[in-house]
Each structure stands twice: as C-alpha cells, then as structure tokens.
Amino acid sequence: MRPRILLTFVLLCAGAALAAAQTAAAPLDITHLHGTRFLDSPWLVQAGDNPAWASPAFDDSRWTRFDPYSPINAIYGEQRPPILWYRLHLADDPAEDSLALSEIQIARAFEIYVNGELVMRSGQVEPFHPRTTGARLLAPIPQQAIRTGSLVIALRLRISPSEWGNGQNPGYYGNNLAIGPYADLQHEAWLTILGDNALPWFDHLFTIGLGIIALLLFSAERRQKEYLWIAALGLLTLLEFPSTVVESFRNIPVVWDIVGILPRGASPYLWAGFYFSFAAIRIDWRWRTFLVIAGIGNLGAALQQYASFNILPVQIFLNLPYIVFLSIIVPVVLALRVRRGGREAAILFIPAVLFSLYIYAEVTLDMLFRVPGWKPFALRGLNLIDNFHAGPFALSLNPISGILCTASVALIVLGRSATTARRQALLDAELEAARQVQQVLVPEHTGTLPGFAVESVYLPAQQVGGDFFQILPDNAGGLLLVVGDVAGKGLPAAMLVSVIVGAIRATAEFTRDPAQMLASLNERLVGRAGGGFSTALAAHISEQGQVTVANAGHLPPYLDGREIDLPGALPLGVAPGVLYESSRFALDPRSRLTFYSDGVVEAQNPAGELLGFERSRDLSRRPAPEIAAAAQSFGQHDDITVLTIERTPVPALA
Prior knowledge:
With 654 residues, the chain is an alpha+beta fold. Helix content is 47%, strand content 19%. The protein starts with a helix and ends in a 7-residue tail after the last strand. The N terminus is likely disordered.
C-alpha cells in the first residue's frame, strides 16, 4: 500500500512538472492578430551571455518564467547581472506578409533577434556603448521567419549599474515591445511622436522665436535689460532643442546627450536674471553664489541618470536649490512686486504659481511612487499631470506652464511695443514740428542780398539737426553772418538751435560787432544749455568788403581756397565771461568766402577714411551745392552746412 501511494505521488509530481514546463513553453498565439499589440505575455529570462540563445532551436525550458509587469529585481535581487537574455515563443499566421516590431525604452544597449536573425540594435552590448532610449524604433520581421508559422523573439540587453540602481524596474517591461503590421506600427509611431511632443516642441519653438524678437528689440533699446534675458533663455532653448528632436526619432550616443545637457548648468542664473529684471531686483554676490550652486546641482541631477547611484532622493537633493528657487522664491518675488504695483510682474505671476504647483505635485508623487502601498495612487497622479491624453495628444503641466509663461512674456513685449509705438508717434510728431520750426529759423537756402551773392546748403543728418546759420543785412549795405554747430544731434540739439537763433536775432538789434555778438550769446547759454555747448563764428561784411570775424571754437572760413587764420576761443556756453577776439581782412569783388560746419570735414566713407581738411580746402572754391553734395556722397555722419559769399557789383539806379 505504501509503495503504491509513493509511486502515485511521484507520478503526480512528474505530471505537474511536465505541465509547468509545457505551460512555460506554450507559444503566444498571434495567428488572428488584428492591428498591433504589446508583447506583454510572460517571457523567459536568463542572466549571462551566449550567442546560441538567439537560436530558435535552443532549449530554454530551464529558463526562469518572467512577468514583464513585475520587477526583475525580484528574480535577481542584489546580483545585478550586466547582461540579460529574454525569449518569447509566438505562433503566427504564415500567410501574414508585413509583421514588424516596435521598440521603445528597453535599455541603453540591446539586440533583438527573430528566429536567430538580428533585426534591431541600439548601442553596443559588448563592449558597452550606451545610447539614449527615447526613440521609437521599427524593424520588419523577415518574411522567411513569418512563413515558418513559429517565431522566437530573443532580446539581448545590457543593463548598466545606473539602470539597476535607479529604483525603478530595469530591463524589459510590458509595453517596451509591440508587434503588428508594419504600416500600423509606423502610423502609431508617428502619431505617438507628434502627440507626445506637440506641446513641448511648441513651447521650445515659441521660446526660441520670442528670444529672437527680444534680441532685435534689445539691439534697438539697450536699456531694456529684460529683452537680453529673454534672448538668453531663447538661446539656451535653442542649444537644447535639436538633441530633443533627434532623440525622438533615433537613439543617440549617451556622450552626445551629455553634451546637450551641459547648458542646463546656466538655467538657474538665466531664469533668475529674467524674473529679477521684471521684479527690479539686482543679482548681488549672494544671489550669484546661490544661483551657481543651483546650476551645479541642476546639472548634477540631470547627469545623475548615468551614474551608478541614480536614485530619486539624490536627484531631489542635488536639485533642491533650483526647486526652491522656482517653486518658492520666484512666486514670492513676483508677489512682492505685484503689491508694489508691478503690472508686468502680475502677468508673470500666474504661470509661475502654476509651475510651482506642478513642482510640488511632481516631487510628492515621485516620492509616493517609491512606497509600495501608494504606488498605484502615485502612478495615476503622475499620469494625470505628466501624461494626460486628449485624443492623440499627451498633455503635461510642465510644457503647459512653460507655454503660459512664454505667452505672458509675449504679452508683456507686445504691450511694451505698443507703448513704444505710441511714444515714437508722439516723438515723430514733435520732430516734425521741430523740423518745421527749424526750417523757418534756419532756411535751407538764402535769398538774394544786394551787393552779395550768397549760396547756402543745410543737410541735417537726422530729421532735425544741430547746425545753424543766420544772415542778417544791415542798414549800411553790409551783412552780419553767424554760423555754428550745437553739440549733439536730434531734438535736444534742435531745441538749443532755436534758443541760439532767437538770441542772435535779439542781439542783432543792438550790435553788429562779431565779438560782442558771441559774448552776448555765451552769457545767454551759460547754465541754460543743460550741459551742452555750441561752436559759433560771427562775421560782419561791410558794403566795401571789410570783414570782421570772431570765432568761438568753429572751423575757420576759406577765402579763395585759403584758410583764414583765426585765434581760438572756447565754444559758447562753456564758461561765463569769455572775451572773443576780432580779426579783420578784406573780401575783394569776385572773391569767395566759404564757411563749413564740421559735418563736411568729418564726412567718412565706408573704409573709415575722413574727407579731411585738405579735400575740404580744395572743395572750398566750388559752389555751395557742389561742396555739400561731395561731402554727402563721401559719407555723411553729421549735419552738413555750407555757405559761400561773394561780393557783386550793385546795379546803379537809372
């Protein structure tokens, strides 16, 4: 009785073992495959490395059965073998003609064999040359393998120490590999790539585009430092964006990925400069020290994925300064600025708070994910904030908050541009009014004066200029001429010109003496020119051709191509009580007296060469329009004024 019972027990055990072996070896039936499916059925796994394990004829009945949704650590514990092989048996329809495999995120180096033939590879298993894992790779299954009706898929994986130590499940997971018609898998791959990356790519392109606009605005408005920080953030995004796009389509060497990560070290400093510029906070040495530490920590946290101690608490610790900055300091700084009436800070405050809430949720859920009892809840939460699907699009609070932030900055830039446009319109109107007034005060051409042939040309470098001249006839048949150049350009110079011209006309009511004229003008300008000054030259020419000249720092005139030697003196408005010395000479009939502003002598060609005194002296014999045209064509950079005076016979009265 006892031997019989023992024999029965042995037979039952053997039958159970045989059944288990048959169950383990039972192929996955895909003969009625419609569409695509994940290869998430139980696999067989074995540590070690043997090329024979790729063969469909290899006996894998002694391999360990593995559920791809369970952690591989439960099988190997602390052994952490560097190379693992997985095998899966499938029964397919021999009539199928377009089967393919789709892979994502299996490992940094792997090989996939179908019936012993290599169909897909990323990186190099031995020697180890890792690559990134984010690309969705496709590979057709050889037709001769399909026709056999039996497929054996073998995976050869290299699992690095950092993958073993990241606190997650290394190796194969249930959704890493899918099988189906090639066209369907390709369609799904493109749809997934575009759906997963639509928001992040839009965020990056938006930031890059805004950075380019900000750089153009900064080149026109150098005082607006905010534009420079926006441009710097656009440049940072531009440096990171290409590798992000490439990694979505193909896995790249880890070394390339590390190079693309390096600019992140500057991220905290650039974001601080951006937010602090809108909050009117200066980055002193204490902030700089903190931001350098945050940048080093941010870079270390990003690179830690490739370290052997890649665990979440270490990542959080390294990135803690940056996390504190974005989630606490930035909202507080903006809130304080809003309380002081900063409308632009108020626009930035909402996306900043949204991003800080995202950081709180992300860090909390990542920590809960490590707690076995909270793992399902944490996974649902992470999917909600990082991978919420709306049709084909994956929504994440990270790019959404980034897009809102960029849109807020664009709104601020648009508002500033509108304000600048309104101010520019007002300025243009003021300049046009000033030009019209200046045209009355300083006419571009002078009328005929009895006994004199006068030519004048006035070409301002801008809409209004700082050159001036006045020609006033006297009652004795002579004339008083005052020519000068106000320091500076544009509207301020034009306003000072108006003051000087008014002063010239007022002074001419009681004196025609050039030295007294300049002394009077000097006293009127001292302390009233806002720190500016003006050169001037006054000349009185009598009916008989006697010329009396006084100079206040202006270019001396030319008489028939010869420079008149005049004593120097301070320009107008520099110091009170300046006495100006007079010089006298004769202007014979048909002789030409030529007056310039420094815009003629300082005309500069594209090569940087000045027109200079020698050329200006040679030109002084020509008519005023020719001189001005020659200086302008040479290269005008300042206001050009040219006056020529000749004595002419006065027609006798009949």
